[in-house]
Amino acid sequence: MSGTNIVNVLSVLLILTSMLVVETRKLRMAAYMYRFQSLVLVTIFLSIAVFMEAKPLYIWSITALITKTFLVPYLIFKVIKRVKEQEEGVAIDKKLTIILAVGILALSFAVVEPFHMQAVLKLRVALAVSIAHFMLGLLCILASKNALKQILGYCLMENGSHLTLAIMAYNAPETVEIGILTDAVFAVLIMTIIARRLFKDFGTLDTDKFTLLKG
Amino acid sequence: MVWYALGSILLPLLGSLVVLFLPEQQVKKTGQLFSFLAFLCGLALLVSFALTGESFSRELVAINGVTCYGITVDTLSVLTNFLVVLIGWLICIYSAGYMSPDNREHPICEGINRFYSLMLLFIGSMAGVVFSSTLLGLLFFFEITGICSWSLIGFYGDEKSRKSALWAIALTHSAALGLYVATAYLYVKTGSFSVTALGKLTEAEKTIAFIGILIACWGKSAQIPFHPWLPRAMVAPTPVSAYLHAASMVKVGVYIYARTVLAAGKVPEVIGQVGAIMAVITMIYGFIMYFPQQDMKRLLAYSTITQLSYIFLAISIFILGSQMAFKGGVAHIFNHAFGKSLFFLVAGALSYTTGTRKLLMFRGILKKMPVVGLGYIAASMAITGVPPFNGFFSKIMIIISGFEIGRHNLLILILTIITVIESVGSFIWFLKWMGTNVFGTPSETVATAGKPPLAIKFVLAFLIIMTLISQYIALALLS
Amino acid sequence: MEKSILFYLLLAVPLATSFLAFGIKSRRLVEAVHFAGISIEAFLSLQMVQYVIREERLFALGDMLYADSLVAILLLIIGVVGFLNGFYSIGHMRYDISRGEIDEKEISSYYGFYHILLFTMVLCALSNNIAIMWVALEATTLGSAFLVGFYKHKASAEAAWKYVLICSVGLAFALYGTILTYSNAFAMVQDAHKAMLWTELIKMAPRLDQQVMKLAFVFILIGFGTKVGLVPMHTWLPDTYSESPSPVSALLSGVLMKCALFAIIKYYAIALQAIGKEFLETLLLIFGLVSVGVSAFFILVQKDIKRKLAYSSVEHVGIIATGLGVGGTFGVLGALLHAINHSVTKSLLFCTAGNVIVKYGTRDSQKIRGIFKVAPITAFLWTAGLLALVGSPPFNIFISEVVTVIAGIEAGHFWTMILFLVLLVVVFVAFFVLISETVVGSPPEDLPKGDVNWLTLLPIGILFVFMVALGLHLPSTLSQLLQRAVTIVLGGTI
């Protein structure tokens, strides 16, 4: 099995995990899924680094390992501990989400069609997956009504764009990667802080209950 | 002469700022002072222009070589500016008497600063419109006059006046879009904002530009379909109605029309035809609306609408080829301003002393208040066009030129005939009200009326004289 | 002064001030530090503008930071308007403390976050690296989140949540646009450093791949468009602007929004050469006109004065997008000028609204009556600001709107421009209703008379002077900057 194949197979695994994050009703479970997925992402980074001789990606995988499998899940678990397990309401029904997800996947493959840059060509599947992943994250935000789940959705989007970045711009200056990762961590941090405040003020994380501002 | 013109613009603007920071007791005096200074500038300009007779344009503000604002001094602007600053000054005097706690209709105890500041701002921006040599400048001051009018109509602050003010600003601003488009269009086609650049446009382009201009002018001069704001605006304090909604602001529309037509050289005939038709339609409408009016100011508002139609008709006839029509139109801008503001101020004096504006309540004004009664007579004679009052001279010029063009233009002939009929009709109608109100023994309302202050009497007397002589000033300059 | 030091100082001063502010407990001291910080920052940005006028383009930190006329305009907005909003904050926050809205102890974190936000905005303005620019913009969201949710109300928590979530999600799209642009450029120059520099990108713009750049620009427009508040990505904006403390609303609408806007303009410049005008024209005109139309409707129906102002920000972004859409010298000039004018005017209005709210204790336009009788100076500024906002002369926005209309007609969009003007009339009427409702009439009886103190009025007064001055005259310095910036955006060499 060639390197690109491994990357592509791993990408498919990535999609599966993200579907799990979207579909899982229990928050704690979803957070674990996210952690698992981040691990897959790190593996992808590593394999791209090995097979495409993209040295910067070694560093990337380390930083991603630290932030995405430890730091971010830690922040989320802390909030879960605080708010206890919450049953979340769903905005869109399950079957529809799956159909939408498939649609997104198809769309992503269509979108990457025009790319004919050399580095990208070999990893077209992975690229499509990364974009699909990003859109799945968006779907997760739109489809769920729980603030914490929406944060997870944002993390999925972040993972998707991170993968795209790894495929298309792994040779970019390190400052860029550091900057983007720092932003990601801080975004999650701030979101969790606000989520806690919401829980304190409203006694719930159900976004349907946040109705003071309309119109 | 540039300085005289600038003085008419800037002195009132300065005054408007100064007045804001003064204690209330000094506001009336200061307001009169600044408006008087502006009047002096206008007078000096009139005299020196009459002596030298040279018309010129001077550019004042340019950005990257594009003139944004400049002034034009010619017969049209000098004459119009004179009426603006003269009546502005008179109104400032009148208001000092009118805006007082003794006013029976609307006792006024506060807001004098605001009132005078806006009035002076208005005088300045009116002069700004009049002298502007660019469409951008016209648009700029056009909008400012609109804002002044809006805030003065809403001066009393009650529900009704706020609504009326909104009507005024909404309609005139919507119409102003025409001027926005025309200004932008002119710039795009010629690279200049200057009014004279209109002459460089092709026939088709001129049509587009003039449609825009006409729409804006209809809006400001309360012609159909933008007319509803003017009768509503009568909730404003009467000096405001007299000045803004009879003498000057509503003239902005016809003035811009005249200014642009004058500058554009040959204007497409279709513009003249459309202008003339709309003018006569408005005239008929306004005339019909005389009959149900019971409120004196509303009657005058409709009369203003029809008189403005006369001017629109005149300038449209000028487009079709009659020089005399233009002179008639300009003279009518001038003459009507004195007649109509006199009429409004008479109405103001009546409501000041009696507390009402209902036409049916008045009888025997002449006996009780001779100056007001005389003013009533002079004003109604002037606006219906009875010699030797000023309205006659300009009206007759318009009608003669209408028949002149009408000899080979059936449309204009018909429109002129309608105009004559309207003229006679309104004469009869005003004669009727004059008979009822002015003569005879005083009715109870009039008999128990208070005394008009000296300021009011002075202004009325001044304007009565002006209705007898203003035509000579106009004709002297126009010939 | 060494020029590159100026870059570092511009970044270091707000950062240092922020650290200081977080550390200080005394209210008076922290106010002094804050005031010193914003003054120095304003001075430095003016200094930078002068350098740019003289030398046209400056670089620092291995080309990672740069300043040209386009940047200078943004820097001018950040420096000057940021200073005035910061100045206003002092007076306003004192009132909030005395009203018990916030704890005196928390005030140092307010100023701390204020300067963090300032830092991220300056970084966004100065960065030549498009990825760093994105990072900085995302950081502005994070830095301002606490300011948005600064009050202890439930509603402010909700607003902060919406703000962070929607803006972060939106900006994620922009990251895609950034990556696409980069990889596109990298494929050409094979130099990772250069492929991320805007100054390099603009040079190679004509050779970039059309399809990719189209996609990239759409992503950018969605992404940064969320941050500026284009419809339909504007949903967070009214909530955020209305729930934030007034000086923060002023800063968000007056300055922060312009940072995102200038990011769009930078990509617009690249895309203009890469894919041509037609595509951008359609895209921006649709976004622009829809924004103006939708917000016009909302301005009309909203009751909350700050929400009205917030929707008017959406409207003005729409106007700017329309200006960019019709393009050409006048279009871009109109857009840039409008950005400046909107910054000044909207800051003035949010600050004045802050005073009105302090006075009346409500944001409900149905309950605010007779400001003129209660606080005449505030009423005057409020009226003037609203008049300016709807584009009345003699105020600044009139000029930029006329320029935009000229640009539109020049580009052959005659009917589009008429539609545009008609939509503006709706806004015009809506705000005139607001003025006539709030300014005249009789105030609630128990309301004490007198204006809010001079500390809050002075910065607004300065903004008012700018507003009138820019309406009557364009200073030659500014006009030179604008001309050069237009040339830069349109891809000509200076």
Descriptive tags:
heterotrimer; A: 215 residues; globular; B: 479 residues; mainly alpha; 19 helices; 2 strands
Task: Write structural notes for this entry.
The complex is a heterotrimer of chains A (215), B (479) and C (494). Chain A has one domain. Chain A contains eight helices and no strands. In chain A, helix 1 packs parallel to helix 6, helix 3 packs antiparallel against helix 7 and helix 6 packs antiparallel against helix 7. The model of chain A has no long low-confidence stretch (mean pLDDT 83). Chain B is mainly alpha-helical and 479 residues long. Chain B has 19 helices and two strands. In chain B, helix 1 runs antiparallel to helix 2, helix 15 runs antiparallel to helix 17 and helix 16 runs antiparallel to helix 17. Chain B is globular, with a radius of gyration of 21 Å. Chain C has 19 helices and two strands. In chain C, strand 1 and strand 2 form a beta hairpin. In chain C, helix 1 runs antiparallel to helix 2, helix 3 packs antiparallel against helix 4 and helix 11 runs parallel beside helix 17. The chains are: A mainly alpha (215), B mainly alpha (479), C mainly alpha (494). Chains in contact: A-C, B-C.
How large is the radius of gyration of chain B? 21 Å
Class from helix and strand fractions of chain B: mainly alpha
* Radius of gyration computed on alpha carbons of chain A: 17 Å
Report the β-strand fraction of chain A as a percent range: under 5%
Order of helices and strands of chain B: HHEEHHHHHHHHHHHHHHHHH
Low-pLDDT parts of chain B are none
- Class derived from helix and strand content of chain A: mainly alpha
What proportion of the residues of chain A is helical, as a percent range?
A: over 70%
- How many domains of chain A, as an integer? 1
Report the biggest beta sheet of chain B as strand number plus sense, adding barrel if it closes: 2 strands, antiparallel
